[in-house]
Write a structure and sequence with these properties.
The protein is an alpha+beta fold. It is 71% helix and 7% strand. It has 10 helices and 4 strands; from the N terminus they run H-H-E-H-E-H-E-H-E-H-H-H-H-H. It has a 4-stranded antiparallel sheet. Helix 2 packs antiparallel against helix 6, helix 2 runs antiparallel to helix 10 and helix 6 packs parallel to helix 10. It is elongated and about 100 Å long. The two termini are 15 Å apart.
Length: 310
């Protein structure tokens, strides 16, 4: 390092080689904003689906149903009372209740319509058993009691549904992670090209800095500060747009969509409410992209300077 370079101040403010207000700076800031928005929306969607799936799985794991085949009305009422009584006497059971024909029609109405009359079919009657403590519940003991009292009855623990929900959650998380990787990769490539273009267009300035003794570390640091500022600016804009997106989606779901459609959307994504943990995740995405922008620009500058070194 030469004597002159020792007196060169380190850039405490962004270096003007790539000014933010230039076309290149504004374009890169816009690109980072778009990539941040896509990353935040992907993260938010995965976060919402994951939370909804965990809630489903927990709820499904705390319930089971007793299916009773259709028989004469008096016998059916007796079987229902027996199933409820035996269930409530079992350890770990919070309560048991009958799923009435009206309840079944309401559950099927989104697919079969509100005018569908389920009483015209020999649909099994259901008794729902809710567990207070699954660890204390003995499924085999209850199943033996129910089978002895009502031979035609059968128990469904919804284990298959729980496995499918867990598999869906894993698939969504994996797909979201892959999407985030692709978005971040595209962001890195865009920053590489933007940095290389800025270096090439300011080759004379870089040569002058070298001539007066500026080190590669000094020049790379200047670019890193500038691109970090661009990354923070674009990342903040993209994160803000993502928050607005989830707010608008929540408003549309609750106020505009029909009740049945809104209910189905909320079953998958909840109410589009990220909560504090989700907002922290969005902030983490913004900071990650900003830091990635700075690091990528620094590495690209070092490689460029190594190529033009005499």
């Amino acid at each position: 390092m030469s004597l002159i370079s020792q007196f060169l101040p380190k850039p405490k403010t962004p270096f003007p080689i790539v000014p933010i207000q230039s076309i290149a700076g504004r374009t890169l800031a816009l690109l980072v904003a778009i990539m941040t928005f896509l990353s935040c929306v992907t993260f938010g969607a995965v976060f919402l689906v994951q939370n909804s799936t965990l809630a489903w799985s927990s709820e499904v794991g705390r319930e089971l149903t007793i299916q009773l085949q259709q028989v004469e009305d008096e016998q059916m009422l007796s079987d229902i009372r027996t199933a409820i009584s035996l269930s409530e006497q079992s350890p770990g059971v919070a309560r048991a209740f009958e799923l009435t024909i009206k309840d079944s029609e309401e559950l099927l109405s989104p697919w079969l319509g509100e005018q569908f009359d389920i009483s015209a079919f020999d649909v099994p009657r259901l008794v729902v058993v809710q567990l207070a403590d699954p660890s204390k519940f003995d499924l085999e003991a209850l199943e033996a009691k129910i089978t002895d009292a009502i031979p035609e009855a059968s128990l469904d623990t919804h284990e298959l549904w729980q496995q499918q929900l867990n598999a869906m959650a894993g698939t969504v998380v994996l797909s979201g992670a892959l999407a985030l990787i692709l978005i971040l990769t595209a962001t890195v490539l865009a920053i590489v090209f933007a940095t290389a273009g800025a270096m090439a267009s300011n080759r004379e300035i870089v040569d002058v800095l070298h001539f007066i003794g500026a080190s590669d570390t000094y020049i790379a640091g200047a670019f890193q500060e500038r691109f970090l500022a661009i990354g923070m600016q674009g990342g903040a804009a993209g994160g803000a747009m993502a928050i607005v997106f989830f707010f608008v989606a929540s408003t549309i779901t609750s106020a505009i969509l029909p009740n049945q459609s809104a209910t189905q959307v909320e079953l998958l994504f909840g109410q589009f409410t990220l909560g504090w943990l989700g907002l922290f995740g969005l902030i983490l995405v913004v900071v990650t992209i900003a830091i990635l922008t700075a690091i990528t620009s620094r590495v690209t500058v070092h490689r460029f300077l190594a190529q033009i070194a005499p």
